[in-house]
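User: I've been going back and forth on whether these two constructs are worth ordering. Before I decide, could you fold them both?

Assistant: Sure. I'll take them in the order you sent them. The first construct and its structure tokens:
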Amino acid sequence: MAKRSSGKSTSARTSQLRSTRQKARPLIRLDQVCEILGHLAPLHLAQSWDNVGLLAGDPTAGVRRAILCIDLTPDVLAEAIKRKADLIVAYHPPLFKPVARLSATSRDTDSLLFRCIAAGIAIYSTHTALDAAEGGTNDVLAEMCNLVDSEPFEYVEGAGGEACKIVVFVPINDADLVAEAMFRAGAGDIGDYARCSFRIPGTGTFHGGAATNPVLGIAGRYETVEEVRVEVVVPRGGVSEVVDALCDAHPYEVPAYDIYPLHRRPVRGIGRWGPLRKEVSLMGLARRLKRATHSAGCSIVGSGSETIGRVALCVGSAGSLPFRLPLVKGDCIVTGEMRHHDALTILRRGLTAIVVGHWTSERPMLHSFSGRLSDEIPGLDVLVSKADCEPFVPVK
């Protein structure tokens, strides 16, 4: 009669099976993960002072498991090593300024960087790029507030190649000749369309000096010529070649042309503000946020009975950013932390505020972000750090 397997051996086989599955999980290159992270939190949306993106790691290395946190602390790093993570996505960049040295025994963040590198763990930071991004930290907090039709505090220039517009004035019969020369030199591409231009007829005037030899009209006499204004888009790096081409093809001795820099399409930036789905008292909104964020130190500025109809929010520390907005009585500023003098400014202006805690205002984003990252990269094991925690502990 065969022996029944013991619970211990079953557990061992289960553990071995899990280990085999983990080893069988396909490797994803770090640069591929960074590309997806850059899609979810576009780096060009970050504030100019920030340090986002891949801070440490080999882009060609394989990644099986990533762990998300707000702050890279010794406890988070120990957890990442224990859970065999290949990548730490830290919301706050542990590296802001140039580092002169890395020491394992340092009490500063350079020791964490050293230990991450030694353990083969890459570090990526999202910070203000994720604050501005659709579905990022501010949108998560806005949903907790029940904001509708929210707008950012500011709009920033979107991603894409830098471009210029070249405008040249050509006699009617030579417009096609000059335009084709510019097209061949690299102008006129818009998306999947080529040889794009816009043309407007008009009248050009000139008075050539005695040494000139005008193609149309006579030197020394005021002339008017029927011309066409030809406009084409050109990549910033190809302007010189296109100008050379138009000058070579243009019939005039001295062609008249203009070069205009083009701005990229603006996209949503940092912060969010908008009306609440339903008006609520300041204290009612504060209690809602305290529950939703699990805040241990939520506080208000203003009367708790004040009726709130609109909210301007910014995770972390809003600073003076909300004061740029046309806020009026009945508007509330929601943020993580606030300076004493900003609170006084809020009271002087007849506004209100709710302060939930810096870390606390940002942490709710991690769970939704982990889900989005998992959806984008099904083969990546994405974890939310359990060791990541609020540095301030309330006194009870």
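The second construct, handled the same way:
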Amino acid sequence: MQTADIQKFKAGKWVQRYEYKSFTPNPICVQWLLTSPEILQLMSEADRYLGRLDAFADLIPDIDFFIKMHVTKEATVSSKIEGTQTSLEEALLKAEDLIPEKRDDWTEVHNYIRALNNAMDDLEKLPISNRLIRNTHAILLDGVRGKEKLPGEFRNSQNWIGATLKDAVFVPPTHEEIPDLMHDLEKFINVELEGIPIIVPHLIKIAIIHYQFETIHPFLDGNGRIGRLLITLYLIDKKILKQPTLYLSDFFERNRRLYYGNLTGVRVNNDLYQWIKFFLAGVIETSKKGVETFQKIIHLRDDVELNRLIKLGRKQNDGKRFINELYKQPILDGATVAGLLNIHVSTANRLISDFQRLGILKEVTGYKRNRIYAFEEYIKLFNE
């Protein structure tokens, strides 16, 4: 079995084409050697904080109520990296409540949500495979920008990052190389299923997988979003997380120059070591923030359910049902509330008024008709 030391890694080779050079990455399905005390210490810390984050899947009753917000936040930020302008609040609205100019970006964000949810369902019967990756990509580009760029299919032409091919910042491998490179990636993801005698700590492995996927750039569009989705899907597939609670897009967005710079550093300087350090730092910071968010959710939930809903008297049961819906959908209108709770619209409006009186909901349009209400305290926890 071929071996590779992270600190002595040779990323690949630059190949001269007509007027440009493309990059052909070396295979990654090899036995990786970890010899750096710094990497081992970071990995240990990342594992510890990731374990704390995962513990909330057991500690919080009905955690599924809150997962939808995590997914929506991830979809918003990951799409923002690619140029969409939808905020978290806008993503929580219905498309018809947005001005027409914002609906295309909204659709891209919601395609990301659909793609992730569908991939999570697929993981119950499929490993992370090229088939699953292509299926996810097809949903991501369904009916939005890039829909003409082979949704669900690996590219059949050269792509690049930059204004023109001649002046590109980075030119990935040619399309003829993609089948072999993606087969190698798929094997590395699933060494256990393939019976390949490779043992690599999972956080190191997904850091390498993400780098390699972004370097192969197998699709004409959507590579960044799929590459970031792969991180969460891998952690779920390998049972590192019980729920999709870790998303690195926010860390990558806030450290965008370092993110792209470290990926480039691997290709140009063979500096996989620095990329893995950056990736593990992201896992640590994001896990810490995730734990803090869950702690604040528990505090808010206790305050609402133990101190405020009790003031509803005989309406407490309806109030409890309503607050559970608000954890999943914290911006809504009266008709939506009526549908969710299977009650008359007039009853829903009275319940909304009660929630306004209790300081749970706030009307956000200023209209007298077609009013929309937000659970702002809760939304703020995901925007901090």
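Notes on the second construct follow. Strands lie at 3-5, 12-16, 21-25, 31-33, 331-333, 362-363, 372-374. The mean pLDDT is 94.
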